[in-house]
Design goal:
- The complex is a heterotrimer.
- Chain A is 70% helix and 0% strand.
- Chain A has helices at 2-37, 55-58, 76-107, 111-126, 129-140, 146-155, 169-194, 198-206, 211-235, 243-248, 257-260, 263-271, 277-305.
- In chain A, helix 3 crosses helix 7.
- Helix content of chain B is 75%, strand content 0%.
- In chain B, helix 1 runs antiparallel to helix 14 (260-294).
- The two termini of chain B are 30 Å apart.
- Classes of the chains: A mainly alpha, B mainly alpha, C alpha+beta.
């Protein structure tokens, strides 16, 4: 009897102890349920032949036929290769550059300059891809573009038809991606660097450590969790691409497809004419499942080697 | 030795950041210059930092509709303000619970959160839930609630920040002093997490500022017109311009659209207010850094 | 442990709620469909409102009010170029003042931008929202079709309603009613537009005058003959000037130089060469034909000669601004009475046309706007009665389709010359109707007001245009046939993607067709074009057999 009571007391105590946390999580959880989980019934659309008089749930099942169009073209492998390779390059290059810039930014003494750099580097992030594509066009157009008209003409070279020459595009796309997103990524890492305790740095500095040593042995290890988290999260989107970048910037130029077409662009080009919700839902289910698998695998690996950095 | 090292880092840092800033700034300047370039000159001679003929024609369209545009800015400010505030509140509370490793079921909560980043029900389902279950159509809530209020990515950022940058010893000490969990959150955790809140606030604010998809789906042109945000209005103008590209030669009488340069002016109109407001936000950002630096 | 339980309870509750809500509305709309076809619509609406917790209060109100024998409110889409016209409410009440006493309906106009139309209609209908009159609108390369909706069972069959209530529609439409049929079922009522169109190259008159060229209106020009004119322009004006203004929409202008029946699509899913005017009803893949190869070679030579802007596939400036810039001689497109008024008003110069294809009837040209009654409509009878009124020719002040097409007299426009009935030559007034609402989508375009510089004889020209097509016997056997790609939707999606890669490339001359066209054709084969062509032929043969 007595034993049971203390157990119950313990339980009540534990409940009391954690109740505030559940209450704190409640509004967010409710929001996720309303905004994200309730609409998940939409996933069944991917397996249905939609008939609106029967409703989404009443519509007949159609197996995996909505997925077929994803694998119907000869270029499927090329498309998936583009999607994954670009994502990997963006992930690695983006992370390295962003961390580097965040560290540089942290070194800037003058607060005014630091503010100025932050504001300026963030400007491209404020523009939509559509606007960015107008700008890219202003630089790259064969006939009226800045590069052909001003730079190449001044150097006496021959005008390049940029939108027809696919060899340049892996670089152009990477440049555009970095240009647009670097400010945002830099600020994410910067905010985790400024959150670090100054004590470590002061101690190191007194010990005569150079800046480079400090960065290598203090800053980088301390922001490693953030870096790992960001990397795992971007792996979850490994087969999802930034539609605006790959569709707007190359202006959907057919000559460039072999290096610019990603899964999202393919889906858009295939379905834009008839708003087929079932097929577009199938495409996003495919992307989700691949991304989910990647996240589960990497998370398992991370859990094995450094449990505290695991996502869940 | 030390100061030499220091100087070297100052020089490198400033050079690299200055170069990146320039790369970010130049296209923006081109955007502004292009928006003030005479349309026909641009079409004939291409875009240039030094156009041969200036014009404010591209802005005339925006100015003609000034009352609509003005109300659009007001709506945007309101939505951005409320949305961002709500988002920070929701996110930091939720993340605080997730950051507590001892909380029973925390791994599941974490997983449920991350799951939303990977799987979505799609546009149709989201539209269905918000319009037919919660009836947000043609209300301010339509611009605030769907999709933007909280996302898993920000939750994880904040959670990570709590874990790495808020010393557990501080929380323990407060608990020993008899502070409640809510008290600890309000008095210790929130003040210490201004940098991360400023960061996610900035990102969420931008998302609200730039959003037009919610408006497109949840506001009808009839009843929702008074709620149109600036991006929605600009987007419509921009769309009506590009429409003509598809329907060349359609016999619609009397439409006179600005075209290429007007798109630039529309982009400028969307960005300039952010550039004006951003330095004010940055003050908090910098303040957050200071707080972060002196803690412990 | 507690946490786990709490969450799982919360979640399962939420999921159940979601599923219930989903099912509720689904069964609601089923009920409404089933009931509406048998019993009066009012009771259907009531069933739907009662059975569906998620159904909006508006629907409940409608149900209640129509139970009392009050007016039915018709929710009608109004296509706009992106903004609401100022006089929207005025036009709405003017229409209500006419139709309420006559047939006991009121109308709510729901403006919606042309480019959002397809997606939003689909989304609203999928979510079960009420729409009474759905506009299926095609313009330029943005093609919509009845099949887009019937494949999801979104439209009501109109056969009986049309026979019973649509008596004024048939005489106006004539042959064109065929555009609304899929098989034996009538799904939509087309707005009366021209029966077809001719094609031509329209050039700035000021440049033509400087070069001393005048087009012969009775002549059909070939691509070769145009080449000479383009060369003259190039020689005279030099680099940076392009004879042919094109806009990069990932397509071609094959149909400008050859009659082509696209069978209700954009030409990707099989076509009839010569538009089937020669009586041949064999569906072919356009891109495999010799004719297409010849066209590509010709336009590629134009591209090489500098008649076409090298940026053509990526250019962001529409044809109007290209023409305005003064660096282009002319553009290609459809030709019918009044077809140049819009561009002349916009550019501010006169144009003259070199005809390249004589007018012929085509399903695509005559079905720019189709009006359908979706399954979510609660009173299809009244809706059809309303639609019928749009085709009646009345005095201008009582003419509902003129109100929709041109707005309110004295506000949207001022009459400069009354012709007869609702026919009048007008000039824009203080309102913004003409600016934001296209005028070819409602009722009978042949009797709505026309803008200056059109003159009163525009109405005769329009009538003569149709008669000319009929008299010349340029109505293909397949007129009215529309291909439904639902059975081959996988292949169709893959083919659409392939054509978006290649068609603009060869179609505007940027790529050498000898090299790229074979690649294009083999990619189409891989995507399953042959299945689509076979299905298209099967449907067409069945359609012809029934006819």
């Amino acid at each position: 009897m007595g034993k049971e009571k203390t157990l119950q007391n313990k339980r009540t105590n534990k409940f009391r102890q954690f109740l505030p946390f559940y209450l704190m999580a409640l509004p967010g959880a409710v929001y996720l349920i309303c905004n994200n989980y309730l609409p998940m019934f939409g996933i069944v659309l991917a397996f249905k032949k939609l008939d609106i008089t029967k409703g989404i749930f009443g519509s007949p099942w159609c197996g995996l036929s909505n997925f077929e169009f994803l694998f119907k073209t000869k270029s499927t492998i090329q498309i998936i290769r583009n999607t994954i390779l670009y994502n990997l390059v963006f992930m690695l290059l983006g992370t390295v550059l962003a961390v580097m810039m965040a560290i540089f930014l942290n070194e800037i003494r003058s607060r005014k300059l630091s503010k100025l750099y932050q504001s300026l580097i963030l400007i491209p992030f404020l523009m939509s891809w559509v606007i960015a594509s107008y700008l890219a066009y202003a630089f790259l157009a064969q006939d009226v573009g800045l590069i052909n008209k001003t730079i190449i003409a001044a150097a006496g070279g021959k005008a390049v038809n940029w939108y027809m020459e696919k060899k340049y595009w892996p670089y152009i796309l990477t440049f555009c991606y970095i240009w647009k997103n670097i400010g945002y990524m830099m600020i994410i890492y910067y905010s985790s660097i400024v959150g670090l305790s100054q004590d470590y740095f002061e101690a190191a500095s007194i010990d005569g450590a150079t800046k480079w040593q400090q960065i290598r042995s203090i800053t980088l290890p301390l922001i490693r969790p953030t870096i790992i988290t960001m990397l795992i999260l971007s792996l979850g989107r490994i087969v999802t691409s930034d539609f605006g970048l790959f569709y707007q910037i190359p202006k959907n130029s057919g000559a460039l497809y072999s290096v610019t077409q990603t899964l999202d662009v393919y889906v858009y080009n295939a379905l834009m004419k008839n708003s087929d919700f079932s097929m577009s839902s199938a495409a996003s289910v495919f992307q989700s499942i691949v991304g989910f698998a990647f996240v589960l695998i990497t998370n398992a690996v991370v859990t094995k080697y450094s449990k505290e950095n695991a996502l869940f | 030795m030390k100061s030499k090292d220091d100087l070297k880092w100052q020089v490198i840092s400033n050079t690299v950041l200055a170069l990146f800033s320039l790369a970010a700034l130049l296209p923006f300047i081109l955007l502004v210059v292009a928006s003030f370039t005479d349309e026909n000159w641009a079409l004939a001679n291409g875009y240039s930092f030094f156009p041969g003929k200036w014009s404010t024609q591209a802005y005339s369209y925006i100015l003609q509709n000034f009352s609509m545009v003005g109300r659009g800015y007001l709506n945007t400010l309101l939505v951005t303000g409320i949305g961002t505030f709500g988002s920070i509140l929701l996110t930091s509370l939720f993340a605080y619970a997730l950051a507590n490793d001892k909380l029973p079921g925390v791994r599941i909560l974490n997983f449920l959160c991350i799951f939303t980043m990977l799987f979505t029900g799609g546009q149709v389902a989201s539209y269905y839930v918000w319009s037919n279950v919660f009836h947000v159509r043609d209300t301010y809530m339509a611009l605030i609630l769907p999709n933007l209020m909280m996302n898993a990515f920000n939750v994880i950022l904040v959670k990570n920040y709590y874990k790495t940058s808020i010393p557990a010893s501080l929380l323990e000490a407060a608990k020993v002093d008899g502070a409640s969990e809510f008290g600890i959150f309000l008095k210790i955790v929130l003040p210490l997490s201004i940098p991360i809140n400023a960061t996610i606030g900035l990102m969420t604010g931008l998302a609200y500022w730039n959003d037009w998809v919610n408006g497109l789906y949840f506001l009808t042109a009839r009843k929702g017109a008074g709620l149109f945000t600036i991006q929605l209005i600009l987007n419509q103008i921009s769309d009506s311009i590009s429409f003509l590209q598809n329907a060349s030669g359609s016999a619609t009488a009397g439409i006179k659209f600005p075209a290429a340069t007007a798109r630039m002016s529309i982009a400028v109109a969307g960005i300039i207010p952010v550039l004006i407001i951003y330095p004010f936000l940055q003050k908090y950002f910098v303040k957050g850094i200071t707080v972060g630096a002196v803690k412990e | 442990m507690k946490g786990k339980k709490l969450i799982s309870v919360l979640l399962s509750a939420a999921m159940t709620a979601g599923i219930l809500a989903g099912c509720g509305s689904a069964s609601g709309s089923t009920a409404s469909t089933a009931a509406a076809s048998a019993a009066p619509a009012a009771s259907a609406a009531a069933t739907s409102a009662a059975s569906s917790a998620a159904s909006s209060s508006a629907a409940a109100q409608t149900a209640a009010s129509s139970d009392n024998g009050e007016d039915y409110n018709i929710k009608m889409q109004i296509v706009t170029w992106g903004q609401n016209p100022d006089e929207l409410a005025d036009v709405e009440s003017a229409i209500n003042a006419i139709v309420q006493p006559e047939i006991g309906v009121t109308v709510t106009l729901e403006p919606i931008a042309a480019w959002d139309l397809i997606n939003e209609s689909n989304m609203e209908l999928t979510a079960g929202d009420k729409i009474d009159l759905l506009c299926i609108f095609s313009y330029g390369q943005a093609m919509d079709s009845i099949a887009n909706y019937t494949s999801k069972n979104m439209l009501r069959s109109l056969n009986d309603l049309y026979a019973q209530y649509g008596t004024d529609i048939g005489p106006v439409l004539g042959e064109e009613i065929n555009d609304g049929y899929v098989g034996d079922t009538l799904y939509a009522i087309p707005a009366k537009a021209t029966l077809g169109a001719g094609y031509g190259f329209s050039a700035r008159k000021d440049y033509l005058d400087e070069m001393g060229i005048t087009p012969d209106p009775d002549k059909i020009y070939t691509m070769d003959e145009l080449t000479d004119i383009f060369q003259k322009y190039k020689d005279k004006y030099g680099d940076g000037h392009y004879a042919l203004s094109l806009y990069g929409a990932g397509t071609d202008v094959y149909s400008t130089f050859n009659p082509l029946e696209t069978l209700g699509g954009t030409g990707n899913n099989g076509v009839l060469l010569d538009s089937g005017l020669d009586g041949n009803t064999k569906v072919v893949d356009l891109f495999e034909t010799d004719e297409y190869m010849n066209y590509c070679k010709q336009i590629h030579s134009w591209f090489g000669a500098g008649f076409i802007n090298p940026d053509v596939n990526t250019i962001s400036d529409d044809v109007t601004s290209q023409m305005k810039s003064g660096n282009y001689l002319g553009m290609v497109g459809t030709v019918y009475p009044g077809s140049l008024v819009g561009i002349e008003n916009n550019v501010g110069v006169e144009f003259e046309t070199f005809n390249t294809v004589a007018p012929y009837a085509s399903t695509t040209a005559s079905s720019m706007a189709l009006w359908a009654i979706p399954t979510t409509c609660e009173n299809p009878e009244k809706t059809m009665q309303f639609l019928n009124i749009l085709y009646q020719d009345r005095d201008l002040s009582k003419d509902v389709d003129s109100l929709l097409a041109s707005g309110l007299e004295g506000k949207s426009y001022d009459v400069t010359q009354a012709v007869s009935g609702s026919k009048a030559i007008v000039k824009a007034g203080t309102g913004t109707w003409s600016k934001w609402v296209p005028d070819t989508l409602y009722g009978n375009y042949y009797t709505t007001p026309k803008y200056e510089p059109n003159t009163a004889d525009i109405y005769d020209q329009l009538a003569a245009f149709d008669k000319g097509i009929t008299d010349a016997n340029r109505i293909p056997k397949t007129f009215g046939y529309v291909f439904d790609p639902a059975a081959v939707s996988t292949q169709a999606a893959a083919v659409t993607s392939v054509t978006s890669q290649y068609r603009g490339l060869v179609g505007y001359g940027a790529a050498d067709p000898e090299e790229v066209l074979p690649e294009f054709i083999s990619a189409l084969k891989d995507a399953g074009i042959d299945d689509i062509i076979a299905e298209n032929q099967k449907q067409l043969d069945a359609w012809l057999a029934k006819k």
